[in-house]
Amino acid sequence: MDADAREQRDRLRQERAFEDYWKLGTKRSVEALFRQYVAQAREQGRDTVPTLHKPDLTRWRRDYGWDERVSKRVQQQLDDDRERYEAIRKEALDQLHGLIPQALQALGEILQDRTNNATRLRAVDAVLARANLEQSPQEAAPQAPQLPQRPPENASEEEKLRWFQARQQMLKENK
């Protein structure tokens, strides 16, 4: 076997060993990989493992930069997970902001129902305070007009209703 063929064979064995090393997860070490290969060779035969020579594994780890490759893969997985999480988070926020007009309409109906004042005030407070949803991202832009000041808790029902209607009107006009 010539040197190039030997080097190619060594490289293929090393790549397989690296993938097995990677699969060991947080318990990854040359020693753990070596023990795995010894057990596998006993059960399935010597030809099923890249090597039973521990110094080969140590050399491959060093020469082919296994630890750096593992670090890069872990970082890539973290980056991919972070991107997926951010996409899911953005979609959820977009959906949530899409519900604001419906929530405002429901609030309007609650505020116009004169039978339960305590429920009306709690509904307004809960919806507007939840996740600071008083403004959608477009409304929060610097050029957005100032929304009317919320009336104090002891304000009359008419004042609260006027405030809510003015707020709704401004939100509609500024879409």
UniProtKB/TrEMBL annotation:
Q: Where is the composition biased (Low complexity)?
A: 133-147
* Region annotated Disordered, chain positions: 133-160
Recorded protein name is: Uncharacterized protein
The organism encoding this protein is Nitrolancea hollandica Lb
